[in-house]
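Hi V.,

Quick status before I head out on leave. The structure for the redesign project is tokenized and pasted below; the design run finished overnight.
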């Protein structure tokens, strides 16, 4: 039985400034809770992701829910959870956090002021563009690839990415979690590449900043730029950035976070 009142926070991830980046709700559990209850809480929070974290002998169990479905991998809610565990003193600053998830073991550390997550890489393979995709995006793809969960669509330049106003109803019909649209950053700009991420079929029309999408984008752009840390920016209305680096079959995602809300959840799990 979970306690009557559960700590509940909202954290903006992949930003150092409140009210930007990607907001995630984090519910701190003492033990596992029913999936139906977690899904109901996520629907109530109505954010792109709500994370549920419970301690175990060798780390934490971590699960993520959109308002519509449970997902296998979520970067911004993992970063937000790690930030919160350190900020509230539930974990020592020098501790490596170990999260047991549907995508296996994910580890997170603090390095030089960054929160660094070790995630599985998802190299995309060239794919045929679905019929109607270019029309739905309102942009001509330079290339189309597909990772485990998402399409990756490269377009001409950063301006095209920023100006997109896609047909979300069409994108919701595709047999993927979401569609990533990306381009190289502007010449002499601060970012190596930019992107936006649309997942209406998973209940998220546009995700502000998507860590898991960069598990696909890191190998995609490393193949073009060479093996080095890359500066990425997700150009949603809220916007947010991160540093990504492909290391073997893993991607190191580094970012920041800011806590914006602390409360208690009264509708406890039973």
């Amino acid at each position: 039985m979970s306690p009557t009142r559960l700590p509940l926070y909202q954290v903006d991830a992949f930003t150092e400034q409140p009210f930007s980046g990607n907001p995630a709700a984090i519910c701190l559990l003492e033990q596992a809770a029913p999936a139906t209850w977690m899904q109901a809480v996520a629907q109530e929070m109505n954010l792109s992701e709500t994370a549920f974290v419970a301690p175990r002998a060798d780390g934490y169990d971590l699960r993520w829910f959109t308002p519509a479905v449970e997902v296998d991998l979520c970067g911004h809610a993992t970063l937000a959870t790690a930030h919160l565990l350190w900020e509230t003193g539930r974990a020592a600053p020098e501790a490596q956090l170990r999260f047991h998830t549907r995508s296996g073991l994910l580890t997170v550390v603090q390095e030089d002021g960054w929160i660094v997550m070790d995630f599985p890489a998802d190299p995309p393979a060239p794919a045929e563009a679905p019929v109607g995709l270019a029309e739905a995006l309102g942009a001509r793809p330079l290339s189309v690839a597909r990772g485990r969960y998402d399409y990756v669509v490269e377009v001409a330049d950063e301006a095209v990415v920023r100006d997109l106003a896609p047909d979300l109803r069409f994108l919701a019909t595709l047999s993927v979690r979401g569609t990533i649209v990306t381009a190289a950053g502007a010449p002499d700009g601060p970012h190596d590449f930019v992107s936006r991420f649309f997942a209406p079929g998973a209940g998220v029309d546009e995700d502000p900043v998507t860590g898991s999408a960069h598990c696909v984008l890191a190998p995609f752009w490393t193949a073009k730029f060479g093996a080095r840390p890359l500066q990425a920016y997700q150009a949603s209305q809220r916007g947010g950035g991160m540093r990504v680096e492909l290391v073997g079959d893993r991607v190191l995602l580094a970012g920041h976070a800011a806590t914006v809300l602390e409360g208690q959840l009264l509708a406890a799990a039973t």
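Above is the designed sequence. Residues 26 and 196 are 24 Å apart (CA to CA).

G. will cover questions while I'm gone.

Best,
W.
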